[in-house]
Amino acid sequence: MIRLDNVTKTYKQTVVALSDISMEIVKGEFVFLVGPSGSGKSTFIKLLLKDEEPDRGEIFVAGKRLARLKSWRVPALRRELGCVFQDFKLLDNKTVYENVAFALEVIGKPQPTIQRTVPEVLDLVGLAHKTAAYPHELSGGEQQRVSIARAFVNRPRILLCDEPTGNLDPTTSVGIMKLLDRINRTGTTVVMATHDQHIVDSMRRRVIELQDGAMVRDQNRGMYGYGA
Amino acid sequence: MGPRWRYLFNEVLIGLRRNLLMTLATVVTVTVSLALLGAGLLVQRQVDKAQDTLYSEVEVSIFLLDGISEEQLASLEGDLRANPVVADVLFESKQQAYENFLEIFASDENLINAVTPEVLPASYRVKLTDPEQFTVIASQFDTYPGVDQIIDQREILERFFRIMNALRNGAIAVALLQLVAAAALISNTIRVTAYARREQTGIMKLVGATNWYIRLPFVLEGIVAGVVGAVTAGLLLLLGEATLVSRLKTEVAFIPFINAGDVMSTIPILILIGAGIASAASFAALRRFLAV
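Structure tokens for the assembled complex are given below, as produced in the milestone run.
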């Protein structure tokens, strides 16, 4: 589903964000990407979205070789990837329903499909009762659920999460992780960048650790740190 | 209306409203530049229209000295009629010249009182088969005894047309400068709008909206400003035609003037130019900002 072959990315020729990373993530996996701030987690996600280009190496996502992907095919790639961020990235002037529907409208889905799938996915994330609410009327956890619903409404094959619990308290985070776990069980590959030690330790999934752009660990059923 | 069209319509409206003053400045600039450009085109059309009629009425005047003898007169007229480029010859005596003078300057009493039949020269009014052949006549008859001077009315007209052409060139030059300003304003407006909506466009990119879909509302916003400016310019020109040209028409009856139809037919050109420049400016503004 995702493969990196000797990928190196530097910014402005001097700052090394990722150096010589090779890895493979197969369909249906749940992978934690851990490491301190600036270790290259966000760069990793940007590379998968073809938001950034690597300096060296090859990246394959959902069967596509990104270096060969023409710019007009990038939207098609992104429709296979759902994205969740620490800051939710919801539109304040749209309701919960409209925020989720927006993701379908702008890729040209017909209105009947939108009217059918949006309530479904809002039900999945547990917000069926808040469809008409605006983001500022919701708690952080609820806002993140909306953002997950938006990322998942088009049934992407891969869900990329960049610190999805970074702004949430531990209890709320647990709820979000349960939701991501549920989505993973539908066969969706989930890649989650985080430095929430507690979550990584309790989930016991594959852990890939980055440090200063280098991959220092790839461990199945891992913990946040070696000693923990 | 499908969701796609509703979306587009809303986005364009929001964009235009968000920056009302800027939009206004843009529209005014587009209006001024296109009105000038349209005026330039219409001057050109006016010149074209008047040229044919005026040239066909043009005569060569051969003014005669007061002391010209009957024989000289007879040989001059005979040679004139024999010349192949001459279509028609008309003799205007001093008395006839005076009567024409009275008619033309009927409103100017001072002038009429100052002039007597004696001071006006007699002349031959010669119509040519081809008005371009003036030099043939001038070189042949200039040396005839009793001929004072030969005047080609076309030269007077040409001076007039030169002025008209200069006016047209000036209008178009200023219009082009204004269009550059308009393009810069449109570009800037679109950049501001795009910046204000960067969150939304960021999400659109993320969920895989195509570049076209993301850019269309911005480009349309620019085009709306361009077209509104062009239509306003067209209305201004129509107003100008209805007031200025119509008044001229009643005072200068002998040449054909442009009419409302001529103005109407330039409006599509203005709209095309307005829309073209607006979309080019919008694309230029978005190229960097919304690149995937």
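The longest helix of chain A spans residues 170-185. DSSP finds seven helices and ten strands in chain A. Further analysis is deferred to the final report.
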